């Protein structure tokens, strides 16, 4: 009797659960519809192309395809690690990334803190707009303007320097100046846009905390140190962990546009090497192996940083 009595109860509970789920999905259908384009984009352009990783273990031929190409195992990875240029590529990539983390990564945080302290509304909004605008300028235009201004022979600034008897600035062809030009262009173009998420985090801070600090006699600097910075700490940590995911992936376009034969010794990174060897020379399997190596390094760094954050009592990415 007990077993037979329990069956209708279970069946009824399942019907109730399914009807509740159907009702919820029906109510949330517009939201699912809104998410659908992004979900399809991720599947089509992020997950499906991962099938191409297989060619990094092959001697891939476009005529034979993935299924007909010869499998060579780890041969492409062995070639990468024994390549004469590997040490130079790794060194240049690491140095650029360390410069980026040490100087560019804190720049939006500092800008957001400064902007948060501005009390004149029209000046604050004007400054925000001015600093945001470079984000919408193509990097090709930014590098093109730099070339026009600092070209060795006919650059506007170099012509002016020569006219007043000063030496020309050869920053575009001097390997010692390449990294700092790259950094300054990144900061000028993206610092305002990157600061948006920090400004949003600052706007969410409870204003009563500042009021209580004022009553206790805390100066503005102490309020920033004891209230603002701790409130930003979690956001900074999450973005830093995510930034480590692209630690070996410094980016192609900007480096490639600034690159020339005279600064190649410091500007050649994995991304430009992949373009030169993979696209121009057609070594698809080998350069896919290079790309997979970059992705694995980024994944390991994210997992390690997230684990360290968890052990130190902070919330990680997941």
- Do you know the CATH topology of the largest domain? MetI-like fold
Strand/helix succession: HHEHEHHHHHHHHHHHHHH
Q: What's the shape?
A: globular
The helix count comes to: 17
Task: Please give the share of residues in helix.
Answer: over 70%
CATH architecture of the largest domain: Orthogonal Bundle
According to CATH, the homologous superfamily of the largest domain is MetI-like
How many whole angstroms does the radius of gyration measure? 27 Å
How far from one another are the termini?
Answer: 48 Å
Within the largest sheet, what's the order of strands? 1-2
Largest β sheet strand count, sense and barrel closure = 2 strands, antiparallel
Q: Decide which structural class fits the backbone.
A: mainly alpha
The domain tally reads 2
Which terms would index this structure?
globular, 2 domains, MetI-like fold, two-stranded antiparallel sheet, about 325 residues, about 75% helix, single chain, mainly alpha, 2 strands
Structure explained in plain terms:
This protein has helices at 2-27, 29-47, 65-68, 75-82, 86-104, 106-117, 121-132, 139-150, 156-163, 175-194, 196-203, 207-215, 220-244, 253-258, 264-267, 270-280, 284-311, and strands spanning 58-59, 70-71. By secondary structure, it is mainly alpha-helical. The chain has 2 domains: 2-50; 74-311, MetI-like fold, CATH 1.10.3720.10. It has a two-stranded antiparallel ribbon. The longest helix has 28 residues, at 284-311. It is globular, with a radius of gyration of 27 Å. The model has no long low-confidence stretch (mean pLDDT 86). Keywords: Membrane, Transmembrane, Transmembrane helix, Transport. Its main location: membrane. It is found in: Cell membrane; Membrane. The chain crosses the membrane at residues 31-57, 94-118, 130-151, 191-212, 224-242, 284-309. It comes from Paenibacillus montaniterrae.
């Amino acid at each position: 009797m007990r077993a037979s009595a329990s069956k209708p109860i279970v069946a009824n509970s399942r019907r109730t659960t399914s009807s509740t789920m159907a009702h919820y999905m029906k109510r949330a259908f517009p939201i699912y519809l809104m998410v659908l384009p992004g979900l399809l984009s991720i599947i089509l352009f992020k997950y499906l192309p991962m099938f191409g990783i297989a060619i990094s273990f092959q001697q891939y031929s476009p005529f034979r395809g993935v299924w007909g190409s010869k499998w060579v195992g780890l041969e492409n990875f062995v070639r990468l690690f024994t390549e004469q240029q590997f040490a130079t590529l790794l060194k240049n990539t690491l140095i650029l990334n360390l410069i980026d983390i040490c100087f560019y990564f804190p720049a939006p945080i500092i800008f957001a803190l400064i902007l948060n302290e501005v009390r004149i509304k029209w000046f604050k909004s004007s400054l925000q707009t001015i600093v945001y605008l470079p984000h919408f300028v193509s990097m090709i235009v930014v590098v093109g303007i730099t070339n026009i201004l600092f070209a060795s022979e006919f650059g506007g600034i170099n012509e002016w320097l020569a006219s007043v008897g000063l030496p020309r600035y050869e920053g575009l062809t001097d390997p010692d100046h390449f990294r700092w030009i790259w950094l300054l262009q990144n900061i000028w173009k993206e610092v305002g846009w990157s600061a948006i998420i920090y400004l949003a985090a600052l706007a969410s801070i409870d204003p009563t905390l500042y009021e209580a600090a004022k009553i206790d006699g805390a100066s503005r600097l102490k309020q920033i140190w004891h209230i603002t910075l701790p409130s930003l700490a979690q956001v900074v940590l999450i973005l830093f962990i995510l930034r480590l995911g692209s630690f070996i992936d410094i980016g192609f376009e900007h480096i490639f546009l600034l690159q020339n034969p005279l600064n190649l010794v410091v500007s050649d990174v994995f991304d430009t090497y992949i373009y030169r060897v993979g696209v121009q020379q057609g070594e698809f399997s080998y350069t896919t192996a290079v790309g997979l190596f970059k992705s694995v390094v980024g994944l390991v760094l994210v997992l390690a940083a997230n684990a360290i954050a968890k052990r130190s009592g902070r919330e990680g990415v997941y």
